[in-house]
Specification:
TIM Barrel; ten-stranded mixed beta sheet; 412 residues; alpha/beta; single chain; 33% helix; Lyase, Ornithine Decarboxylase, Chain A, domain 1; 12 helices
Length: 412
């Protein structure tokens, strides 16, 4: 593409191939077939379990993705803060869950402004302290409309740590005429432990705490519909196993997961996490156990050119820390293309990324044919959440590697 054309319309790039460097590289892409497979499988798994989902929009921060997931059956979109809430609401998402605390009282008029600007939309908030309840109360009063609230319980990060504290928060919500108590929420992914076994024990203990508090809310609110919300993309199996029997017995409540990265999966942290899920027994789909790791497909790829081959066994590729996630592992070479054609004699296992600069990736070549300047390498990534946020747009690719769509991201 011509220099200066950094934000592409679909018509300007439709059918072009990153593998042939027909667009400026580096570029981030989502494989359409892999994403759709992950979406359809996971939503089908949740439907079979009687579970709803509000996928965390912070992963791609793309209204197109959020709208697609809702159209496919998601209950809402989850966001992390007021900036993300405004971005989603302003692009037509009509129900959101703000899964973090808002901060102090200065944020009350900001939330109130969103309630006034989008009166037809539902904004569900959380509170893990009396101070957080006061902020939501001030916002609801200023907006002149009620706000639904979940009591947050937690371990390792935010969330009330004791039953007594959670009870006081619930009472404060119930006593406020402008707030509506909708249930309880937690995030099991913040539980820590010296071993995976210890971490699972901690997660199970947190979910037992959530269950106990939910039953307490049910005694206080015998007829109200309630929500239990939890579930990231690594331990949702434990959440489903622990909470589904509770809501099935209750019959007036539902489990709401917030998994977001799972729709994109990866070649790192989530592949390892779902392999660990398989060691715990995999996923129960109806009456059949299936492999979690084999049920999802990595959808994200980073494309970049070789810039230099300065010495044997070393190649410098044109991307770096500004372009890709590295907090949960280095990107993984997947394939090499020369003049748009796959180089079958370059096996990905013979290459590895061992260092990143701002704009350079260092590739170690072990017993591999030398690369050439201009070769295009495609990489798998680890941790979609910290990869998407480096991009203001990403491409959607068809099975033959051609661009079929352009999605804008709305990171602040």
């Amino acid at each position: 593409m011509p220099l200066g054309q950094f934000h592409h319309t679909l018509s300007s790039v439709l059918g072009l191939r990153p593998s042939a460097c027909e667009v400026l590289l580096p570029a981030l892409t989502v494989d359409e077939a892999a994403y759709c497979h992950n979406r359809d499988f996971f939503l089908g798994y949740l439907r079979a379990a009687g579970v709803r989902i509000a996928p965390h929009a912070k992963t791609p921060m793309s209204p197109d993705i959020a709208a697609d997931l809702i159209e496919a059956g998601a209950w809402a979109a989850t966001v992390a803060n007021l900036q993300q809430a405004e971005a989603m609401l302003s692009h037509g998402i009509s129900r959101i869950l703000i899964a973090n605390g808002l901060g102090g009282l200065r944020n009350a008029p900001r939330l109130a402004a969103l309630r006034k600007d989008y009166p037809e939309c539902e904004i569900v908030c959380i509170a893990d302290s009396i101070a957080a309840v006061a902020v939501l109360s001030a916002a609801a009063t200023a907006a002149g409309s009620s706000i639904p609230v979940l009591v947050e319980l937690g371990a390792g990060r935010s969330g009330a740590r004791s039953f007594e504290t959670a009870h006081l928060i619930a009472q404060a919500i119930l006593n406020d005429p402008m707030l509506v108590l909708r249930g309880v929420t937690t995030y099991e992914g913040s539980v820590e432990g010296p071993t995976e076994t210890a971490r699972i024990e901690g997660i199970d203990a947190l979910l037992a705490f959530v269950t106990r508090f939910f039953l307490h809310l049910r005694r206080i609110m015998p007829a109200d519909p309630l929500i239990i919300s939890a579930g990231g993309s690594l331990y949702f199996d434990r959440v489903v196993e622990a909470i589904v029997p509770v809501v099935e017995e209750d019959k007036n409540a539902f489990l709401l997961l917030r998994s977001g990265a799972i729709f994109f999966y990866d070649h790192g942290i989530y592949r390892r996490g779902l392999a660990a899920m398989d060691r715990r027994g995999g996923l129960l789909l109806g009456k059949e156990r299936v492999s979690a790791e084999r049920s999802f497909k990595p959808a994200l790829k980073l494309w970049a050119e070789i810039l230099s081959v300065p010495e044997p066994g070393l190649a410098i590729c044109g991307f770096g820390m500004r372009d890709v996630s590295f907090d949960q592992g280095m990107p993984v070479p997947l394939a090499i293309f020369r003049d748009g054609a796959l180089k079958a004699d370059h096996h990905p296992s013979s290459m590895s990324v061992f260092k990143l600069n701002d704009q350079h990736a260092f590739l170690r070549l072990e017993n591999a044919p030398e690369l050439s300047v201009g070769d295009v390498v495609t990489f798998g990534i680890s941790h979609p959440c910290t990869c998407f946020d480096r991009w203001r747009q990403f491409y959607v690719l068809t099975d033959d590697g051609r661009i079929a769509g352009v999605c804008q991201t709305l990171f602040s």
